[in-house]
Amino acid sequence: MRNVMKSPAVGGQAVLGGKKFKKAFTLIELLIVIAIIAILATLIFVNVASARKKARDVKRKADLKNLQTALEMYNEANGSYPTTGSAVWGFNGCGLGNHGVTGPTGYVPNLAPTYVSTLPLDPTVVSQDHCYTYRSNGTDYKLRALNTVEIPLVSTDPFYDSLHTNGRTAQVSTPGAVTW
């Protein structure tokens, strides 16, 4: 018969047959710890992803406000807004013409580099019907972050576009261009 000593663990060790054994975690305990870590990692990932979306939306709104300010400076200096002949212009790849980010062929013509260094682009990938757009007849204008907003705008947001009621388009415009 084996010599098993039934004594309490001493210094974190169990005694069996005169030999000392260290206590260890059971498989169940390890699985529980792994599950808790996985849940916490998922929560952190979701919060970080949400914060990134909010940051990109803040950048979109800031871009529109900066362009709006530049358009007002252009209007003050030239007596009208840069015109697109009432067509909607977007950056090359947006499906709204072959327009760049500066000069007379910029998606806001002649605004850059005089009033802004270059025209901003959406912080995500520009694609068909997902980009910044501009339309002007010289008297009025409308700037949009078309279908790019990641956290939908509510109707009370000053950037809300009442013509794109899904909340995914932010806009700034003159009063005469609101319904474009």
What does this structure look like?
By secondary structure, this protein is α+β, with helices and mostly antiparallel strands. It has one domain (38-177): Glycoprotein, Type 4 Pilin, CATH 3.30.700. The chain contains one helix and six strands, in the order ββαββββ. It has one helix at residues 27-78, and strands at residues 13-16, 19-22, 88-90, 131-136, 141-146, 170-173. The strands form two sheets. It has a four-stranded antiparallel sheet, with helices on one face. A two-stranded antiparallel sheet has the order 1-2. A hairpin with a 4-residue loop joins strand 4 and strand 5 (141-146). It is elongated and about 100 Å long. The model has no long low-confidence stretch (mean pLDDT 88).
Short description:
It contains one helix and six strands; from the N terminus they run ββαββββ.
Keywords:
elongated, 180 residues, Glycoprotein, Type 4 Pilin, alpha+beta
* Estimated structural class: alpha+beta
What would you report as the Rg, rounded to the nearest angstrom? 30 Å
Helical coverage, percent range? 25-40%
Distance between the termini: 94 Å
The overall average pLDDT, rounded, is 88
As for the number of domains, it is 1
Which CATH class? Answer: Alpha Beta
**Strand ordering within the main sheet:** 3-4-5-6
Q: Output the number of helix runs.
A: 1
CATH topology: Glycoprotein, Type 4 Pilin
* Strand segment tally: 6
Low-confidence stretches: none
Assign the CATH architecture.
2-Layer Sandwich
Shape: elongated
Write the element-wise H/E pattern from the N-terminal end onward.
Answer: EEHEEEE
Characterize the main sheet.
4 strands, antiparallel
Strand content: 15-25%
